[in-house]
Structure formats: structure tokens, C-alpha cells
Design goal:
Helix content is about 55%, strand content about 0%. The protein has about 90 residues and is mostly helical. The chain has a domain of about 60 residues: 434 Repressor (Amino-terminal Domain). α2 packs across α3 and α3 packs across α4. The longest helix is centred in the N-terminal third of the chain and has 11 residues. The radius of gyration is 16 Å and the shape is globular. The termini are far apart. The model has no long low-confidence stretch (mean pLDDT about 85).
């Protein structure tokens, strides 16, 4: 089944919401300077952090909590960093 999505996986892809991590990326740069430094402080590989920030995998609740601690993010601001829906640009031909 290489390259073929099962019905279950297709439903997951259709229902999956990607989130805008630009504010999180900015905070990582502000506090840690680099994703490498952030990944070290998080105790997660650079590859895993990249996958999460590029929507290939999702942050777990524990990872979000740890990131908030590392980046000094107030709990009331979690939605701004982890749950802002990504708005996709749609090109139109005029």
C-alpha cells in the first residue's frame, strides 16, 4: 500500500487543522536564539522540533507545557502560540 492513504488516514488528514506557529517561532528566537537551543532545553531532538513546527507531527500536551515553561509563556496565552489556525492563501486567476 505504498503511497495509498487508507480511509482512516484520509479522514485524519481531512479533519486535521494546521496551526500558525509564527508567534511560537518568534518566541523561540527571542528566548533561545535558535531552534537547536530550544530543542536542547526541551529535551527533544532537532528533527522532532522541526517536524512539529512544520506540521508533520503534533505537539503533545506535555510538550506544550514544557515549551511554555522554557519560553516563559503565560498559561492564558497558550492559544496565541499553539492554537491559532493557519490561514491558507488561495490564489485566484483574474
Amino acid at each position: 500500500m505504498c503511497g495509498i492513504l487508507s480511509l482512516e488516514n484520509l479522514n485524519k488528514e481531512v479533519n486535521r487543522v494546521n496551526f500558525n506557529y509564527s508567534k511560537l517561532r518568534g518566541k523561540i528566537k527571542e528566548v533561545c536564539n535558535t531552534q537547536d537551543n530550544f530543542s536542547n532545553l526541551m529535551g527533544i531532538s532537532k528533527t522532532s522540533i522541526s517536524a512539529k513546527l512544520n506540521h508533520r507531527t503534533e505537539f503533545t500536551q506535555n510538550e506544550m507545557k514544557k515549551a511554555m515553561d522554557v519560553l516563559h509563556i503565560n498559561g492564558s496565552d497558550i492559544a496565541d502560540y499553539f492554537f491559532t489556525p493557519l490561514v491558507q492563501k488561495i490564489e485566484t486567476n483574474n
